[in-house]
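This protein record is not my work; I was only asked to verify it. Take the sequence as given and treat only the tokens as open to question. I have pasted the whole thing underneath without changing anything:
***
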Amino acid sequence: MYRLQRLTQAEMGSRRLDVSSITLEQSRMDKRAAAKLDRRNRFLTAARQLFADQGYERTTIRAIADLAGESVGALLATFEGKEDILAAILSDGGEKPGGDRGPNQEPPK
């Protein structure tokens, strides 16, 4: 079990947070979030292009990762699979590859 501990004023003074370290940590988190968003967008751009050129069925996860300049593992850490990528493209308002399927219909398997 966890135990709550009362700290005296003297102890609190020695445990103060360094604002510069918080700012630095926030900056690192912002950079990581920006890199993650950039990677996601590169996957979606590559998938849009491949779906338009080859069609959904003939496009592989590896082809999407290669065109995006990333590994298959990075793609699968970002998306669950090809269906998830297509759903993200459709929900982002991208062009609908392979016809006029509405956003509520299941992607082809």
Observations:
- The two ends are 49 Å apart (CA to CA).
